[in-house]
Structure formats: structure tokens, C-alpha cells
Amino acid sequence: MTWIGLRPARRAQMLSVGQVMVTDEGLEGDHGRPGKRAVTVVQAEHLGPIGAMLGQGAVAPEVLRRNIVVSGINLSALKGRQVQIGTAVLSFDVICAPCSRMEEALGKGGYSAVRGHGGWCASVIRPSLIRLTDSVIPT
User: Fold this and answer.
1) pLDDT at 80
2) Contact, 1 vs 132, CB < 8 A?
3) CA 24 from centroid of its chain's CA atoms
4) Burial code of 1-17, b = ≥16 C-beta within 10 A, e = fewer?
């Protein structure tokens, strides 16, 4: 993993953390949605192309408002599969579509730039503490 972030309230700024407890409802302290959208995950490799489509550098992870940023793994190939992070297990269920706030956060064209690059929403199969240093392993 390259980044873990929490949204403590609906419109609050993302907080970067080194570790967090994953509960059945998502990341502890995060204003998320339980169920299939409990945790959001995006590939670090997509941050550069999103920025490039907008004529700027790589987008900072907190701007996309995703919980976890990973690198070196193709998330799209994991649709419907389970992934272990540390000892926590997530199921990649739903594409994480961009929200309307992307126009505000990234400027004109922000929504379209994120479309197809926004990562995945995941449900929690096995709660556990995850750390920034944990590996992401498809199961």
C-alpha cells in the first residue's frame, strides 16, 4: 500500500494515517458506507493519468477521497475476488465511480478524468488492523 486515508465526516478533509482498524462497516473513524462500499481502493498508477488528462501533475490521493491507494497490482483484474491486506480480507464488488465533487476538487473536466480510474469499492470479509507497510495479496 502507498497511502491510507480517512474521512472523519461527510465533507471533511481526508486524514492520512499509518494504520487503521478495518471493521465490518469499513475503516474505523471513516465516514463511509457499510456493505459493498465499506472501503474504497484505487491504484497509485492511475493518479498520474488522471492529472495528465487535466493538464497537471499526478493527483494527490486525498483529492480522490479513496481510503486506500495501492501500487503494483491490477485492481481491475480483481473484480469479484477477495484481497488480503495484512490479515484483513476485502471483496472487490463495485467500481468506485467519481462523485460530483471531482469537478470542485480537480476543476473543469475532473469528473470525466476520474471516470474509469476511480478504483473499487469493497466489502469487509474479515476485519483486522491494516498498516501502510502491509502487502496486498489476491486470495
Assistant:
1) 92
2) yes
3) 17
4) bebbbbbeeeeeebeeb
- 88-107: burial string, b at 16+ Cβ within 10 Å, e else: bbbbbbeebebeeebbebbe
Residue ranges of alpha helices (H) inside the chain are 47-53, 61-64, 101-106, 110-114
Could you tell me which of 40, 41, 64, 43 has the C-alpha nearest to residue 113? 64
Q: Over range 77-96, report the average pLDDT.
A: 95
DSSP run (H or E) holding 129: strand 128-131
Residues 106/113, Cβ–Cβ less than 8 Å:
yes
Task: Give Cβ neighbours of residue 69 (< 8 Å, ≥ 6 apart).
Answer: 1, 2, 3, 4, 5, 41, 42, 43, 44, 47, 61
Global pTM exceeds 0.85:
yes
Helix (H, G, I), strand (E, B) or coil at 57: coil
- pLDDT-based confidence at 20, cuts 50/70/90? very high
Query: Does the pLDDT value for residue 43 go beyond 90?
Result: yes
